[in-house]
Amino acid sequence: MFERFTKGARAVVTGAVTVAEREGAPVVTEEHLLLALLDAEGTKAAFALRALGATDRRASLEEALAAARRRGGLSKADTDALAGLGIDVTEIVARVEEAHGPGALADDREDRTRRSGRRPFTREAKGVLEQSLRVCLGRREKTIGDEHLLLALTARPGVVAETLADHGVTYAAVEGTLGRSQSRNQTPGRGRSEGQG
């Protein structure tokens, strides 16, 4: 599948590995893919994220993701559901951190032995890569660009999609932004402009 990735999409995947290494994370997660997308420049996903204001709110996105990590990866929907059952996740996190230290529920910081020496992708991160292929095929496009990775992140349930949605970056918003960008790049009588795919 990786051979179908554009240069920009490959840069995001390798960028996610770099982000994971920089953070000392033993695995590459969906969050790392998002952070690599936010680092991208001059690509379709970078345009969409900028147009939707996500790049200007990067610090807020990172804070929301860190808060979810601190809750052991629980989304707001998860914590709301547990609250409906009388379980206060904030109180549980506070007690665990009191006993074991800050970030005790964020298990992604623990180093694990890897035979290959490479950081493996989590099941969820691999799911984003697979979803990007489905998005690409659904849009009847031949190559997987970084915009497909962004759309895949917004389409998969979980903390990253929830955080993006809270910041105005939904599947529909990204698709609408990409559609506006594409229509500006087309001229009457000519198909897609070079580089569209």
TrEMBL record:
Biased composition (Basic and acidic residues): 100-114
Signal peptide from the UniProt entry: none
Stretches the record annotates as Disordered: 100-123, 176-197
SUPFAM superfamilies listed in its UniProt record: Double Clp-N motif
One Gene Ontology MF term: peptidase activity
InterPro entries for the chain: Clp_N_dom_sf, Clp_R_N
Keyword Ion transport recorded: no
Domain (Clp R): residue spans on this chain: 2-186
UniProtKB keywords: Hydrolase, Protease, Repeat
Gene3D superfamilies, alphabetized: Clp, N-terminal domain
Parts of the chain that traverse the membrane: none
UniProt biased composition (Polar residues): 179-188
Example of a GO biological process term: proteolysis
A Pfam family of this chain: Clp_N
Protein name in the entry: Clp protease N-terminal domain-containing protein
Organism: Streptomyces lateritius
